[in-house]
Amino acid sequence: MTGIERTDVLVVGSGFGGAIAAYHLAAGGAKVVVLERGPWLNGEDFDQDYKLGSSYTRAFDFVVGDGMSILGGNCVGGGSVVYFAAMPRAPRFVFERHGSIGRRMWPSAVSRDTLEPWYDRVAESIPITQQTWTDVPYAGGLWAAACNHAGRTANPVPAAIDTTKCVNCNWMMAGCRFDAKKSLLFTYLPAALAHGAEIRPLHEVQKIERNHDGSYRVHYDLMDEEDYRLRSDGGAIDAKIIVLAAGAGATPVILQRSEPTLGTMPHAVGRYFSGNGERLNTAILNEDKVREVLGLERGDGLAYEANQIGKGPVVANWDRLDGSLPEYERFSLEQLYFPPGLGTILAQVPGAQGPSWFGVDKKEMLKRWRSWLIIFQMTEDDNEGVFGPPPAKGNADRLSQQMLGVGRLRYDPTPNTLRGWALADAECKDILERDGLAEVAAWTNDVVGAYTVHPLASCRIGDDPATSALDDRHELRGHPGIFVTDGSAVPGALTVNPAMTISALAERAIPAIVQAAQDRGVDVTYGAPAPDGSTNGRRGVADLLPALTRR
């Protein structure tokens, strides 16, 4: 067959897992091509509106499943462009979780201690600010005050934000016009480009096949830049190494669709999906009680009315991140802002019987939207998500011009997951309904299901081939030369925002990917500094390399 392009390494997706791989492999001398399904957007493209065709709907992928919907990134930079920029490290107890399999789900080689040097590598590469109370806007301050009133603690979260540039416009989730959020557009991706990597937006990978020489052929379509229901014939690229980083809602779908041409997939591909145990609660605050109970006032006669002012999550309650507690009883509570168009539509009316994201009561609730406080819960679930047979194209059947699609994920929460949600809901209520401060309702219900902005574990790493799609070096079992470095490789819920852990695992996977590339004749080395040239992190992982490059 003629006309097939060739490269050393093909990376699918440009979020944390893809960008980190692209940088290190390009910096090491490999020829790298990155295929990204979404458009290439920069600061001036991030419109602060909700018009169809503007950056808001172009940059997101909202896939409705059976019992679980996934909100992810759909642009160059992936989730780093549309996430809340919170970058905490996972608690120590997370790595000892048993979950639904009844034994430690993480590979024995990975613990908080062994991952710590890789966390440090990420912190050296992505500017992370430990926010202080002077950085906290009104909503974060109110959440902290409510926690204190209820006898709980609260802390500003570490975030990839330049606080000197942030204007508290609260549009962080839809990109940042002011370049305050330090997404991958400012770190790994420009460094990858500087070393010769090619990044191609609007390229959606459909399937992978194995060539006779042991390399792989990746087939892609070209996406219309405004209507994602439209696609044109793309092409194919041969590569010696494939790095899949399309996200936990898309990577398993690509592999499932590839099974006829690639060969049998590990049992765990598309199984053990986790929504990071996530759940959202909306509190409708009583302005008079904010003043009377908490003693807060922000001037002009207003006690609060500041839901629209701020940035992503700034304050979290971590009291329940206690390793001595039983599994499924540990969770974090984080104040954040879901902008109108998502937050206003999906929020439920406190005290309502049945779904209430529409109707007269919801209309009255919307009149008070400036007095809302949204609390994001990250609990421990049972990895109960399973992907069914893939659609003919893409990761979902597109319903709208952009963003909205119907996927094949089925998620039926177990009693363990439901108990974790109930405990987190009760904690939110105890903090925010105390002394009449607010009325609280969860978004999730039996009709519309659960939501996650942090999908995980659909192709997870592990020691047991029966319950993990990848070995502990992120290589797909039975398919040498194919690696997965996105959130689908994380074994289970983390109880905190996962970006830092996804990134640390991706950094840890690079030495093995480099070794595999060398074995396949690619002239590439490992050892690049951080994108800004710093080398402390590189020295910190030197002793770990022999174990990661074993064959």
Write a brief structural summary.
With 551 residues, the chain is α/β, with parallel strands linked by helices. The chain contains 14 helices and 21 strands. The protein has helices at residues 16-27, 55-59, 79-82, 112-125, 138-149, 188-194, 251-262, 287-294, 343-346, 360-366, 415-432, 499-519, 536-540, 545-548, and strands at 5-12, 32-35, 60-66, 68-73, 129-130, 155-156, 158-159, 198-200, 203-210, 216-223, 231-244, 278-285, 315-317, 332-336, 372-378, 385-387, 397-398, 404-411, 438-442, 450-452, 482-484.
What key attributes describe this structure?
7-stranded mixed sheet, alpha/beta, globular, 24% helix, FAD/NAD(P)-binding domain, 14 helices, 21 strands
Description:
With 551 residues, the chain is α/β, with parallel strands linked by helices. The chain has a single domain (5-543), classed as FAD/NAD(P)-binding domain. 24% of the residues lie in helices and 20% in strands. It has 14 helices and 21 strands. The protein has helices spanning 16-27, 55-59, 79-82, 112-125, 138-149, 188-194, 251-262, 287-294, 343-346, 360-366, 415-432, 499-519, 536-540, 545-548; strands spanning 5-12, 32-35, 60-66, 68-73, 129-130, 155-156, 158-159, 198-200, 203-210, 216-223, 231-244, 278-285, 315-317, 332-336, 372-378, 385-387, 397-398, 404-411, 438-442, 450-452, 482-484. The strands form four sheets. Strands 1, 2, 8, 9, 10, 11 and 21 form a seven-stranded mixed β-sheet that branches. β1 (5-12), α1 and β2 (32-35) form a beta-alpha-beta unit. α1 (16-27) runs parallel beside α6 (188-194), α1 (16-27) runs parallel beside α12 (499-519) and α4 crosses α12 (499-519). Belongs to the GMC oxidoreductase family. Pfam families: DAO (PF01266), GMC_oxred_C (PF05199), GMC_oxred_N (PF00732). Residues 67-271 form the Glucose-methanol-choline oxidoreductase N-terminal domain.
